[in-house]
Amino acid sequence: MKVMTTEEIVNLLDANEDLHVIDVREDDEVAEGMIPGAVHIPLGQVEARAGELDPTKPYILVCRAGRRSEAACNILEEKGFDVTNLEGGMMAYDGELEFK
């Protein structure tokens, strides 16, 4: 499984890269802020909602600390998706936040 540091994702966001981020945290956690442009799909819904994702795009998965996003990466990797786990999750992320 590929991994990315929070420093790497902040640099990509600062460079206006077209990223496809999936936040697998629960609703109450997401209310505290998300990575700008991220799509919210709670871990328990990842498998059922995989059909909503474009299999030709790479995805970066994030959660609070990195464990749930790792589980989500495993689910999507088995379905043939190109996924990267954000190491340390939102606890390590110190970039801009978006509130929904």
From TrEMBL:
<protein>
    <submittedName>
        <fullName>Rhodanese</fullName>
    </submittedName>
</protein>
<dbReference type="Pfam" id="PF00581">
    <property type="entry name" value="Rhodanese"/>
</dbReference>
<dbReference type="InterPro" id="IPR036873">
    <property type="entry name" value="Rhodanese-like_dom_sf"/>
</dbReference>
<dbReference type="InterPro" id="IPR050229">
    <property type="entry name" value="GlpE_sulfurtransferase"/>
</dbReference>
<dbReference type="InterPro" id="IPR001763">
    <property type="entry name" value="Rhodanese-like_dom"/>
</dbReference>
<feature type="domain" description="Rhodanese">
    <location>
        <begin position="15"/>
        <end position="99"/>
    </location>
</feature>
